[in-house]
User: Which sequence fits this backbone?
DNA sequence: TCGATTTGGTTGAAGTGTCATCCACCCTGC
DNA sequence: GCAGGGTGGATGACACTTCAACCAAATCGA
């Protein structure tokens, strides 16, 4: 049942074991549904999307509420064109604004606006509630730990070696520092004025 | 830190515990990167996308290579308009074709074409290899089991009770049968002529 | 039998992500 | 000082997703 011949000549494909197959199906389904759910919830009871949220989180996490565009891309593991388009849309809605970088004529900053700040402040609490209700209320402590370890293992595999994608590398050459370990962002989780948006809650 | 009153006035948000926060960040990151990676891989070394793949898997899984449109939507947990648009694009590329349903004048079938069959046959092996390499080669047996259980718990939460979304319910009223348990599709995994595309490999 | 409702499915518009391309600026070597 | 390459970022085209509206066939109720 496990080995079979394949298209042409005698290529043998390594299919998944039944156990793996079941786990994979379960994971894929859950992940798709969870994403859809979080997106819907966010756009229903706030004025921003998950993507907006992710960007805003990064911004509120900086003391000065401003980031260089590509730095943002690297943190979020987004393509630079994605950031560019997305920031443009957010700018149109007044959530952020762009500013030129004086030290580097090519560069530009994405800057949090007041409106952006209130948008994320409004969105964060219910998002956190939902994540907790949908995910963590279902899991034991051991499972939470397992989830983290499994995720980290896979993520590591994805971002090291020949496998690391262009995006992961963010156009740069050095393997991006991927998990700003404890203290990576001082006061992690606590933004400016007591706003706690739980950095990285999403994407 | 844990107890709190509700809305406005002195609303205190139940943020995540540090451990949960870490797990969540890790999961979100992994999942985003993994999706991106699988999509890229699929579109690079085959002529179809992950979405196409998901549709084709369902089709190859039926003895006659045909499904009613909404049934497809329910299996994939997609919105009906998504299916409709997507099938239209796939039809344009010759991967499937539509046929009218004689027993129900409103209905229509999506039917696998030869070209569709060869497309998925060509795509499946390397997809399976990638999934195995990126995910399962990183995990112990216990972790695989944990992944499945965690996923199932969350998925169950997502698709039961008040939480079940319109999509999950697929416009119908009865809670869709969600995991065609063993034997749900006889000869599960083995398509027509010995084509084994590992049903449900994605989405 | 006929109107109201539900169901299966399509359509169009608007938001989003990806790819390829492009431009302006920086940096290096000569 | 300047030619060439690398980097930061924007842009346009295209594929994909969602939402809302729509339509026609089926079903239900009186």
Assistant:
């Amino acid at each position: 049942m496990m080995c079979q011949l394949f298209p042409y000549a005698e290529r043998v494909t390594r299919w998944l074991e039944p156990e793996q197959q079941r786990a994979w199906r379960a994971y894929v389904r859950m992940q798709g549904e969870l994403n859809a759910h979080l997106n819907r919830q966010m756009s229903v009871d706030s004025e921003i999307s998950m993507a907006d949220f992710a960007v805003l989180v990064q911004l509120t996490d900086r003391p000065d509420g401003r980031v260089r565009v590509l730095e943002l891309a690297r943190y979020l593991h987004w393509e630079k064109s994605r950031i560019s388009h997305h920031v443009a849309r957010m700018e149109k809605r007044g959530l952020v604004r762009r500013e030129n970088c004086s030290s580097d004529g090519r560069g530009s900053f994405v800057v949090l606006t007041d409106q952006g700040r209130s948008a994320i402040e409004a969105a964060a609490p219910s998002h956190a509630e939902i994540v907790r209700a949908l995910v963590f209320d279902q899991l034991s402590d051991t499972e939470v730990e397992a989830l983290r370890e499994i995720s980290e293992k896979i993520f590591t595999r994805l971002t090291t070696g020949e496998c690391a994608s262009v995006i992961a590398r963010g156009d740069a050459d050095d393997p991006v520092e991927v998990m700003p370990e404890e203290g990576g962002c001082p006061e992690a989780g606590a933004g400016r004025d007591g706003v706690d948006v739980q950095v990285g809650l999403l994407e």
Q: What stands out?
A: Chain B has a mean pLDDT of 79. Residues 54 and 116 of chain B are 12 Å apart (CA to CA).
